[in-house]
Amino acid sequence: MSAVDQLLGTSAAIAGVREQVRQLVGRSQPGRRLPPILLEGETGTGKGLLAGVIHREGPRRDGPFVDVNCAAIPEALLEAELFGFERGAFTDARQAKPGLFQTAHGGTIFLDEIGLLPSALQAKLLKVIEERLVRRLGSTRTEPVDVWILTATNENLRRLAAAGRFREDLYHRLAVLTIQLPPLRERAEDVLVLAQHFLARACADYGLPAKTLAPEARQALAAYAWPGNVRELSNVIERVALLAPGALVTAESLGLPSSATAASSPAAAVEPDAESPLGEMVETIERRRILDALQATQWNISQAAERLGISRNKMRYRVERYGLRPDARSSRRVPKPHPEPTEEVAAVAPPAAPAPTGVRWERRLLAFVRAAVVMPPAAVWVDGSRQLETLVEKARSFGARVEELGATGMVAAFGFEEGEDAPMRAVLSAMAMLKAVERIPRGGSGTFAMVFTLHAGEFTVGQIGDTTQLEGEARRQVWKLLEELYVDASPNTIVASRAARSLLRRQFEFVPLAPGAPPRSYRLLGYEPTRFATDGHVAPFVGRAHELDLLRASFDAAAKGHGQI
Fold first, then answer.
1. Under a CB-based contact definition with an 8 Å cutoff, are residues 231 and 239 in contact?
2. In this predicted model, what pLDDT tens digit does every residue of 338-366 receive, in sequence order?
3. Could you tell me which of 498, 521, 527 has the C-alpha nearest to residue 427?
4. Helical pair 301-308 and 312-321, crossing angle rounded to 10 deg
5. How far apart are CA 328 and CA 509, in angstroms?
6. The dihedral of CA 58, 62, 63, 66: what is its sign?
């Protein structure tokens, strides 16, 4: 399979993209200057995958491929990451470091979310493109760079440029060639093709028996609007491959809203252009309805989603899209700090929070996963940032609540939503996150590794209304234990506490990290979803003599030709 064939689908839309890429790379010649390419499409349509395909099929396939998410790097660090710096250029700059443009010399640099690039850096990027020279922070000399520049955005850069929110001259330099990736709702015939591919891949990755989609599951997949596009579909299928019992995936296990509910929900409708007056009005109404539902349920995602008739994953997607927070002051659509009051701001201003009515304490089975980026000396901060974005997405697809997020790690909690099998979801989430890390192409500034630590048990939680929090001292102990497990771990492994292992050992295989000593931590070896055993041995039937006699009699009757189905 060529790299272009990784763009799966039979629809005319994706076939057109494949043909466009083939024509583009077929005309490119080694040694010639390559035109910048702008990839446009909604979030989750596969712009990162397409950029990697173009690089691997193009004339610079033997050079480095540097992937940069402009939205994930703080503005104060972005210039230093892109262009490098000299020793002493700023506090803590103890030694000189080349930028990502220099790292990509002779290869390709992919600038994702280019529409969010700060205006000051837009001018510097334009200069790099035109002069093919970069100057490090704190340096007085320039250095030549020869890179193929690919960019991506989920915004309409032409309209942003017309509105003065993006440099028009930079837009024209970046959009020499433009490829538009269609949303999944415009590729209806591709949904089942992609779902079957993701299901087969997940079963192969985790060593599971092959699974198939039931007819009603196919109908549910085809009827859903997929606001998160291919990325959402991939996460749903991976989750259901790990969680669904048996070889047949049912519609219920997918957890998608019914077609009637989805069609009537505000988030399922095909959205008009967000830059048009109609699009702005629809987004304002939708945002207000989502915010009202969240406030009415004390920011309980599951209850708010049920109130609106949409899935929890879809609700989380909308909350992230509109930048909603419990204080309701931050939104991607609302102007930044200290704007003049507007009708939209006034419309979504939160009412005064009601006074707490008391705390109710209870014991609950919870599980926690800590993911930490192991940073070798050659790596840079941006690598961890790109990974963490993927980790958060994977954890939330298994129902996690992100309790802590930092530049090089995160802690996800499971079990705050009642009815969840917290330990099972936690370990499967860790496996999915580790697999996602392994799929991320290494490149640019070096390699890295991840460590995942897992703990589970009964804990005291306090509940005020619909808000549930772990008791303070228990939280400190859990965080301390997760850190201690991390110290014992090797890169790219999942390590469980003794308590977590005791809850999971019937379906997962663990080995002690320190053989010979009393084990306090265990490394996960694998998943055996059909195994019911005690310490690796098949558990015997106990007190089932009558049932066994009945089975023997049935077998004897069948052997004599008198059996029945």
1. no
2. 344 343 333 444 554 554 557 788 888 99
3. 527
4. 100
5. 44
6. positive
